[in-house]
Amino acid sequence: MAEEPLTAAMLHDALAHFEGRLAKRFDSIDHRFDEVDRKFEGIDRQFEGIDRKFEGIDRKFDGIDRQFEAIARRFDEVQLQFLAVARRFEAVEARLDLLGNRLDEVYGHIDGLYHALENLRTEYHMLVAGLRRVEERLERVEERLGRVEDRLDRVEEQLALRSEVADLKERVDTLQERIRALEERLAH
User: What angle do helix axes 103-187 and 3-95 make, rounded to 10 degrees?
Assistant: First the structure.
């Protein structure tokens, strides 16, 4: 009978020692999870920054849309001017025999049309240059998205750590079952 309390005390000490080691391991695992959570928070902040950049790009596209609407209105105005000029030419042709002395005035109207056409060409070149800048910006956005995808790949690698933690938990459970079996053997 003197051996039973001694054996129970030894088992109790061994179990307390094991629980202490197990608690340290769980603390280490909790610390790792905290690190993973911090990394996810950093990634969330990066995505928020990307969202803000996309909102800025959307605003820029809204501005471009407004510019296109203004240009469309200008084209409508120019079309009306062209129609008015066409009517003038028809009137000039009908009256050309009678109005030979007003030929200089007709040339003045033609010069106005050429000026309007030059303005349209200038605006066209400005639009082309603007579109090139938008394409360059889009290329930079695509490069940034590539970097984000690379970061996501790294996050996936970090998520693999979670499966390793799950494996460790299963191993701890197996060890606990073995300890219980040993305790039962020692008790008998």
Answer: 170
What pTM, to 2 d.p., does this model score? 0.30
Six-digit token string for 68: 């296109």
pLDDT in tens, 99-126: 565 667 768 888 988 998 999 999 999 9
Tokens of 185: 């053997």
Q: How far apart are CA 53 and CA 45, in angstroms?
A: 12
61 closest CA partner among 141, 148, 146, 145: 141
Please report, for residues 13, 74, 80, 103, 144, the alpha-carbon distance to residue 85 in angstroms, rounded to integers and kept in the order given. 106, 16, 8, 15, 51
CB 180 within 8 A of CB 78: no
Q: Are 162 and 36 in contact (CB under 8 A)?
A: yes
